[in-house]
Amino acid sequence: MPERVFYIAWQKNKFVLLSHYTKDQNKTDPKQLKHAIKLAEDLYERFGE
């Protein structure tokens, strides 16, 4: 089954993996996307941009 990983670019050349899930269908699950956005916001809040 296909898998999806959400990540953000962090400080010039680093990436932070936010979440990962196995896809059930071809579309991105909106719940998983919202979850990844919340994680990114939390990361920026705690550690700054």
Describe the structure.
- The chain has 49 residues and is of the alpha+beta class.
- It has one domain.
- Helices cover 37% and strands 35% of the residues.
- It contains one helix and two strands, in the order ββα.
- The protein has a two-stranded antiparallel ribbon with strand order 1-2.
- A hairpin with a 3-residue loop joins β1 (3-10) and β2 (14-22).
- The longest helix has 18 residues, at 30-47.
Q: In what range is the share of β-strand residues?
A: 25-35%
Overall domain count:
1
Task: Give the class from helix and strand content and strand pairing.
Answer: alpha+beta
End-to-end span in angstroms?
A: 34 Å
What spatial order of strands do you see in the largest sheet?
A: 1-2
Largest sheet, strands/sense/barrel: 2 strands, antiparallel
E-strand count: 2
The shape is elongated
Q: Helical region count?
A: 1
Offer a few descriptive terms.
single chain, 49 residues, alpha+beta, two-stranded antiparallel ribbon, 37% helix, 35% strand, elongated
